[in-house]
Amino acid sequence: MSLFSEIANYWVEGTLRTFEAVSRGFGSPASDPPPVTPYEVIYESGKVSLRHYQPAQRRHRTPLLVVYALIKRPYILDLLPGKSVVENLLNQGFEVYLVDWLPPGANDTWRGFDAYVNGDLADAVRAVQIKEDTEQVTVLGYCFGALLSLVYTALHQRNVKNLVTLTLPLDMRVRDLPVYNLVDRMSDSAIELITKLYGNCPAWMINSGFVAMAPVHHALDKYVGLYRNAERDGYAEMFELFERWMHSDVPLAGQIFREMMGDIFKRNLLVNGGFNVGGTAVELGEVECPVLNVVAELDDVVHPRSSLPLPDLVGSTDKRNLVFPTGHIGAVVSAGSHKKLWPQIGAWMAERDQ
Amino acid sequence: MKKELTTLVDFASKFIEAGWVEMPGALMKRLTAAGAEEEAYEAGWKAYDAWVRLANEAVNRLYADRTFGETMARAFETNLGLGRITETFASVFFGNLWPAIGLPTATEVHALRGELTALREELLAKEEIERVDRDRASRIASRTASPRQTGNGFRPEVIRGAREEKESVAV
Which residues of A are catalytic? Predict the structure, then answer.
């Protein structure tokens, strides 16, 4: 009886959490938990807030700019002591800057790749260059942030010393995830309708997309998992934080949503050629700096086969894939990734520091 | 297609094996033999895990189905279209109704809210200025005030401090 009542309790708590998230329109900066690693905001403009994390002992000259995705809040990269990418990189002696995207409002529907890449991201890089008195930075992007980083590097190669892409959604010919079939059937007019009706793509819609990827897990299995692992040290705390993050979706600005769905997802223009940002064609061959493409082998959000072609498309001579047996989010929170993956990423960046 | 079907059949057979063969067996054993609780418990979770894998695979198969995808996409688009029509209708209807019955429109309420926010900010700024001035005055007073008192209770330093305070407010 205890089994069923406990799982039912977890389920009710989870459902209430979802209702609460729906009532506040999902993500809001106010709902971020206290940061694990202290930081200082060194620049804020447009839709970007740039955080600076200082290592206890700096061991590498080139500053590292971490570009987070436009959906959900970035605290997944600094979730708990020992499960924080930021902390891991600081311990390796990197000077870390993190791009925290501010949620778009009703007046930001016009923001597309041009505004985010040539505007906000370029400004953030400039702010790091000024603060560090340096010409180049290493850029590390995660998920959608990896896509923004790649486009930025292709357009502003001279500012980027090294590029690290983590779980990059790139080749959209890959339709190995069944949920893509649903998105595939959506016509261009439906995408237009979403932005006409809501302005930006609402946060609840993005959240629904994530839930639809694993409905059994979200409806039941995660609560059963909590019951089965409740005795494990730190599991309940991690679950709570993770759930909070899962409900932290933020809206996606109307224009970038249209470009993402139409040009990238449906027409695959970044790979096929013909993707324009601010009137300039994005040529992946223009990326000439060292590139490390980190692929999560068990990724069920971005299929590994979608990320793998990157080295074949960039113009760099120093480029490679690093495939690691983890999931999309496991790549940033799992103990295994922190023990084995991030030291490898750090070592790769350190080797290319000079 | 053949591979997908094989996976589904594979998951289904594992679920049948775990849920309908192993679990009842373990439960029977628990009823008849002492100390078989752990075994029954494990068999139960094994059946559950098999069911989750089967359910996930079934959902994936459903998503991959062309008819299902098209139906869902059409329903979604229809829903959006209805939302758009409702929004247009509501804005036309209420846009005319509110002024007719003397109620403010959303734009007017927005403007009023903006004015209120500006007033609040102005008030806060004034309070801040006053607080800074008060702090400065008290600093000056504490610097100039001394316990020295004349016979009639007159304290020249304190008064000088207060005068300075007034000047600083005017500045």
Answer: 143, 299, 328
Domain positions in chain B: 2-64, 104-144
Rounded-to-10 torsion of CA A312, A315, A320, A323: -50
What are A176-218's pLDDT values in tens digits?
777 777 778 888 888 898 998 889 999 888 888 888 888 888 8
Q: Which single residue is written with the structure tokens 């605290």?
A: A75
- Kindly tell me if the per-residue pLDDT of A247 is higher than 50: yes
C-beta separation of A191 from B80 below 8 A: no
**Residue type at position A220:** L
DSSP string, chain B: -HHHHHHHHHHHHHHHIIIIIIHHHHHHHHHHSTT-HHHHHHHHHHHHHHHHHHHHHHHHHHHH-HHHHHHHHHHHHHHHHHHHHHHHHHHHHHHHHHHHTTPPPHHHHHHHHHHHHHHHHHHHHHHHHHHHHHHHHHHHHHHH--S---TT---HHHHHHHHHHHHHHH-
Nearest to A252 by CA among A209, A215, A223, A301: A209
**Beta strand spans in chain A (E):** 40-45, 48-53, 64-67, 96-101, 137-142, 160-166, 276-277, 280-281, 291-296, 319-324
Is the pLDDT confidence value at B30 over 60?
Answer: yes
List the beta bridge partners of residue A40.
A52
Nearest C-alpha neighbor of A101 from the set A156, A53, A144: A144
Q: Are A14 and A28 in contact (CB under 8 A)?
A: no
Confidence of residue B153 (pLDDT cuts 50, 70, 90): very low
**Contact residues, chain A, for B84 at CB < 8 Å:** 193, 196-197
CB-CB neighbours of A185 under 10 Å: 18
Quote the tokens at residue B37.
Answer: 């609780």
- Under 8 Å CB pairs connecting chains A and B tally to 50
pLDDT surpasses 60 at A28: no
Q: Do A185 and B80 touch (CB under 8 A)?
A: no
Q: Out of B45, B59, B83, name the one closest to residue A215 (CB).
A: B59
CA-CA distance, B37 to B48, in Å (whole number)? 17
Of A350, A318, A351, A311, the C-alpha closest to A150 is A311
